[in-house]
Design a protein that fits this description.
Length: 260
């Protein structure tokens, strides 16, 4: 049996994604996979994506709300990479043929105006680095069967990242209370969930500070013009063929995804 290495895990997870193949958790075969090596796998997956021509467009946070933490059974937030290949244009059906078992979740999305480098970044300072706020819908698509994973597994798998859409309304963060920015989540027009921005670490800017500080601990920094997805406000819902998922926000507009 070949031993597991960072390189092998990265190649395997990227191949699962490219060929729409699900698998069991890597930690079941590589129990020594710790968080540090898991982030090394994530970084190696990114390196391979950049090598094949994708561009880094930002970062996402995962497991920042209680709804998400409870569903996935993991209480620690994490970060992952976003590339331009994950951008889904508004108004097109979700290309389900690209995914294994896609789920959608509403998020608040920041565009940064300047660099944010931890440690020591506070939510108040983090928000001042934000140039614009959008509504967002992330499509997650774990490469693990039934979305079953441990924290190192999901970190290695780039936090189940697959695609994301940004909403129709660009707002300045000044004068918006994002802790009170509400979202109503609907499937086929029926309300299935709702949440406010406060669901995300008390305020989405706290999640942004968390991203700056956890990247800082790895010697990295958030860059100007990067997008930051701050994490699902509600539990995610399955994107099924012939059905639609819509998120309606108080001041950030609406996003509707057709199940393709
Ligand atoms: C992990 C990714 C979590 C979020 O917004 O919390 C995430 C998963 O749920 O599969 O993207
Ligand atoms: Mg998410």
């Amino acid at each position: 049996m070949t031993a597991w290495t960072v390189d092998r895990a990265a190649a395997e997870l990227l191949s699962c994604e490219d060929t729409r193949r699900e698998r069991g958790p890597i930690t079941e075969e590589w129990p020594d996979l710790d968080l540090e090596s898991a982030y090394a796998v994530q970084d190696e997956v990114l390196r391979r994506r950049l090598e094949r021509g994708e561009r880094l467009v930002g970062v996402k946070l995962g497991l920042t709300s209680r709804a998400k933490q409870a569903r996935m059974g993991i209480a620690s937030p994490l970060t992952a990479w976003l590339t331009d290949a994950m951008v889904l244009p508004a108004g097109v059906p979700v290309p389900r043929e690209r995914f294994i078992h896609p789920r959608a979740e509403p998020e608040i999305v920041f565009v940064l105006g300047r660099e944010l480098r931890g440690p020591g970044v506070t939510a108040a300072v983090a928000l001042r680095a934000v140039d614009a706020v959008y509504a967002g819908m992330e499509i997650i698509d774990s490469r693990y069967r039934d979305f079953r994973f441990t924290l190192p597994d999901v970190v290695a798998d780039n936090a189940s990242s697959a695609a994301f859409v940004t909403g129709p309304v660009l707002r300045s963060p000044y004068g918006l209370d994002l802790s009170l920015e509400a979202c109503r989540l609907e499937v086929d027009g029926q309300v299935v969930d709702s949440a406010a921005g406060a669901a995300v670490q008390g305020h989405p800017a706290e999640a942004l500070a968390l991203a700056a500080n956890s990247l800082g601990a790895r010697g990295l920094a958030l860059q100007p013009d990067w997008l930051v997805l701050t994490g699902g406000m509600t539990d995610a819902v399955a994107v099924e063929p012939g059905h639609s998922v819509a998120a309606h926000f108080t001041s950030l507009g609406s996003i509707t995804l057709a199940g393709g």
